[in-house]
Amino acid sequence: MTLRRLLLVVVGGMLGTAARLGVGLLVPSAGGFPLATLIANVVGALLISVLAARLPGSTDARVFLGTGVLGGFTTYSAFAVGTVELWADEPTTAAVYVLLTLGLGVAAAFTGLRIGRPRGKGAA
C-alpha cells in the first residue's frame, strides 16, 4: 500500500514538474518578472482546491493528482528564489509579485473550493 502511493507521487510529480517546465517555456519572463511561476502557482492553487473539495484525502487519485501532479506543478521554492532575485534589482516589483502570488493564490483556492464543492439536495 505505501509503495504504491510512493510510486503514484513519483510518477505524478514527474508529470507535474514537466508541465511546469512547459509553462516556463511557453510563457517568457517579462523583464525578470517570474510570470510562469505566478501562473503555475495560481492555476495549481485553483486545481488543488477543486481536488480537495471533490476527493477524500486518502484516495489514490488524490495522492497522484494532488500530491504528485499538482505538487510538482506548483513551486514554492521558485516563488521564493524569484522573489529574492527580483528584490535585488526591483524591490517594488518583488513586493507586487508577492502580493499577486498570495492574493491570487488565495482567491484561486477559494474559487476552486466553491467550484469543487458538491451540489445537490441540501447543498447551499
TrEMBL record:
Record field: transmembrane: 30-51, 63-88, 94-113
InterPro entries noted in UniProt: FluC
GO biological process, one term: cellular detoxification of fluoride
Regulation: Na(+) is not transported, but it plays an essential structural role and its presence is essential for fluoride channel function.
Keyword Transmembrane helix tagged: yes
Catalytic activity: fluoride(in) = fluoride(out)
Keyword line: Cell membrane, Ion channel, Ion transport, Membrane, Metal-binding, Sodium, Transmembrane, Transmembrane helix, Transport
Alphabetized GO MF terms: fluoride channel activity; metal ion binding
Topology class, membrane: Multi-pass membrane protein
Residues reported in the UniProt entry to bind Na(+): 71, 74
Subcellular location, record wording: Cell membrane
Keyword Transport listed: yes
A Pfam family matched in the record: CRCB
A GO cellular component entry from the record: plasma membrane
Function summary: Fluoride-specific ion channel. Important for reducing fluoride concentration in the cell, thus reducing its toxicity.
Family: Belongs to the fluoride channel Fluc/FEX (TC 1.A.43) family.
PANTHER family: FLUORIDE EXPORT PROTEIN 1-RELATED
Descriptive protein name: Fluoride-specific ion channel FluC
